[in-house]
Amino acid sequence: MDLSSINPILLLASIMAASTPILLAAIGELIVERSGVLNLGVEGMMITGAICGFAIAVGTGSPAIGFIGGAVGGALLSLLFALLTQVALANHVASGLALTLFGLGLSSLLGQGYVGVKPPPTPKLDIPVLGDIPLLGPILFSHDLMVYVALALVAGVWAMLKYSRAGLILRAVGENHDAAHALGYKVVRVRIAAIAFGGACAGLGGAYLSLVRVPQWTEGMTAGIGWIALALVVFASWKAGRVLLGAWLFGGVSVLQLNLQAAGVAIPVEYLSMSPYVITILVLVIMSADKSRAPASLGRIFHASQ
Amino acid sequence: MTLKTILTGAVMALGLTAAGAQAQDDTTKVGFIYVGPIGDGGWTYEHDQGRLAVEEHFGDQVETVYQESVPEGADAQRAITQMALNGADLIFTTSFGFMDPTLAVAKKFPNVKFEHATGYKTAPNVSTYSARFYEGRAIQGHIAGKMTKSNIVGYIASYPIPEVIRGINAAFIHARKVNPDVEFKIIWAYTWFDPAKEADAATALIEQGADVILQHTDSTAPQAAAEKAGDVVTFGQASDMAEYKPFPRVSSIIDDWKPYYIARTQAVIDGTWTSQQVWDGIGPGMVGIGEITEAVPADVRDEALALKEAIASGEYHPFTGPLKKQDGSDWLADGETADDGTLLGMDFYVEGLNAEIPQ
Amino acid sequence: MKLQLEKRPQPSRRWIYLSPLLAVVITMLVGGALFAALGKNPVEAIATIFWEPLFGEFAFYYRPQLLVKGAPLILIAIGLSLGFRAGIWNIGAEGQYIIGALSGAGVALAFYPLDAWFVFPLMALAGALGGWAWGMIPAVLKLRFGTNEILVSLMLVYVAEQLLAAMALGPMKNPDGMGFPGSRNLQDYPAAHNADLITGSGLHWGVVAALVAVIAAYILLGRHMLGYQIRLSGEAPRAARFAGVKPGLLTLFCLGTSGALAGLAGMFEVSGPAGQVSIDFNVGYGFTAIIVAFLGRLHPVGIALAGLLMALTYIGGEIAQGNLGLPAAAIQMFQGMLLFFLLAVDVLTNYRLRLLRRPEAA
């Protein structure tokens, strides 16, 4: 065992990069759930975003356009879910599961010609001066653009929910859709917009995987990350700031256990891998004493005539 | 489309399959059961390349069918049965977890031949085949020992099973042989295929000073992580991973099932197929060593190629004594080579490895 | 002009029966277009999926397989539907299924190789208890702390999956298995083997249990006080409280029952068709059963039919892969579409489409 071989600065920097896909997907799902919709199709939207982003980046040679393509792909798929749950008033849980099934199939069909292709590289931002600051420099300022986009999204969502009128409406719709409707808010429109935003974020997260983290297209490459993003939203008790914390914790546990192994520490991997989920349940229990609970209308179907 | 047209279509379709069943008497039908999607770029991809090679080699004489992403267990049994029912003459089941289902189906179809990859149970109509990947690991270990400057070699392992442990030992023995200071850092990923996790594992190893990464997982994510780091050497696994040539990927172990699949199909056509247990290595061509690139110094490349020749000809066995187990007890005396039984059930590290096998 | 949905005073009986048929027809059309786009004969592909397993050349083999594939789905979905009707959302059946399988297999492996009649009943008991216990965690947390059972039960799926991997690689590993992960094959241990009751019929104890569950649920919901309370809690929670329903007890009952049934399904699977505890033992029955429960409109008979339909698309899809070379992904998409359409047309049962000629008065 040689713990000194773990470099804490590099470890923190990797955790930041490793947590980006779940962070993106989770911040999108947070908005969806805050509007009172439970979309379990995150995995399907992520992998669709992964292949759309990949294909478009390869086609155009530009990772930036690829990321946009990934977001659009995820959003388009999520509109199917919106159609089912908001227009056809289908059950959220079942529709989300169907969306994942559909997305996994769709992505592998779309990706058939892209196995073994290398995407155009996404450049790292070399931020002058800031990047040279000892300690903080490598941890905070040595990443690619998407890491900062993800952070900016978290900040944006936080500010939107807390200060803006749009955030107020979103929360009203999520807490009590009947009251929100009575107040004249367009419940269905708000929710469709939220679902599309969630899809776009999940798509971005997927594209980050296929263009930066891995970077390659392989079938089933999300390997369950979308489900972790769902757990993360709960862990964060539907608060933007805590999503960030949670993403670092979830990403951190995984990166840390790999680092501990590399340093020669014999750890029971499966039991450690369980820990984020057990912690999430504990957080739910602790939170129950707190005011911050799940949006009251979460997963309930809304129809104006009710 | 009305219900009636659908039904007529169905009847037509039935007619078609019945016609197919008659036509197949002169063609040999070969089936493949895959555990992953053919687009995984690794394990299943290479098996499918083998299938395509069979098609190309035999042309109209042979028809191939496959089913991908078959879960192990009850679903596998049904998939195999279905192929047998539909007139397959030879069926390759290409994952360890298909072992019991393959044997169960084989019992019901004594006239169909079965080939199960990486297992250990046989029957009169079931053969097993597997590749001596550890021979390739020995060559990788040699190159790794020569190439490392930090003397730290990172190893991304999948599950603690004999096959993987064998690979670690073979690589370590040969790395130590050329570099007495080399150390291995081993990460168990507990997956065969999870690109994001493999990328994290590679990054963790690189951050802890590894400048050579060996992987026993199937995605190219570690290659990309090494490329990003800039000065880290990697090796392709399962497939050539040629897109990362000439650096970081300096060589590779390729699962080459083509010759075997063609030979066994030929045996069925000729009626000479018999049950056997095949464990082939570099010599018969089941394990391919991908091009050793310019990034490797010429003398090291020559040594590696010489090692490959010696293993291929059978002149040298990668597990040749004197070797001790990790706990210091004797394993192989001077000049003694390991027997296949011990290798197949290998559950210990050799002396010098500074790690524990997870229990 | 504008289309508007108008809630029916009562669900339309006609559409209850018509909507699934409509969905299947739409799926055939759209799915056929997909197959055609992939260069396959659409009629042939769809006939293979829906016709071949039932009436094709090898139907003698596929028909029993429909039972093998459908039984766990039905058994789990019946349990889930009770809770869903009462507004209690257990989406962690996959985890309860895994724990049930581990408990059942644990008993079998502990007795191995003892050949005694009581081994299998004990396994069934352990499987049900294991699933029940796993289901009680979200129930108790909900009662004690008010946590959301959707989320807790989902989290417990991941925990169960890790536990499964740990067991397959550790304590339950087959000592004669050359070091490979996975337990002994229970099919080779007669006292623990959940074999076909009539050879080749596909009729194992899990199928029997599914049938019993369907009948029991039918009676419970139609004739029993508890069933009335379940329905009332879902449809009118406040009225239910006035009628003397204790929501806490109902939560315990629904989550416990669905957990126990999922656990039983896991136990029957591990001791029968699957045979062994392996890392990838669970193939998503717990999640698919949620879909089955909804497709069956949460009605016991509907669930039985939906489970069989789902099994049909799995088996037919496999045949289409093998015979026509359709990629697995296309089948997956086809199933996804079928679910989409089934869910979407359900709206016609409870709502009427109205064409508004004038713009809505704001």
TrEMBL record, chain A:
It is a multi-pass membrane protein. The chain crosses the membrane at residues 6-25, 37-58, 64-84, 96-115, 135-161, 192-211, 217-236, 243-265, 271-289. InterPro entries: ABC_transp_permease. GO terms for cellular component: plasma membrane. This is ABC transporter permease. It comes from the Bacteria. The keyword Transmembrane helix applies. Keywords: Cell membrane, Membrane, Transmembrane, Transmembrane helix. Its main location: membrane. GO terms for molecular function: transmembrane transporter activity. It is found in: Cell membrane. Pfam families: BPD_transp_2.
Automatic annotation (TrEMBL), chain B:
Residues 28-313 form the ABC transporter substrate-binding protein PnrA-like domain. Keywords: Signal. GO terms for cellular component: plasma membrane. Residues 1-23 form the signal peptide. Coiled coil: none annotated. PANTHER family: ABC TRANSPORTER SUBSTRATE-BINDING PROTEIN. This is BMP family ABC transporter substrate-binding protein. The lineage of its organism: Bacteria, Pseudomonadati, Pseudomonadota, Alphaproteobacteria, Rhodobacterales.
Automatic annotation (TrEMBL), chain C:
Pfam families: BPD_transp_2. CDD domains: TM_PBP1_transp_TpRbsC_like. It is a multi-pass membrane protein. InterPro entries: ABC_transp_permease. The keyword Cell membrane applies. Its main location: membrane. The keyword Iron does not apply. It is found in: Cell membrane. Keywords: Cell membrane, Membrane, Transmembrane, Transmembrane helix. GO terms for cellular component: plasma membrane. This is ABC transporter permease. It comes from Roseovarius gahaiensis.
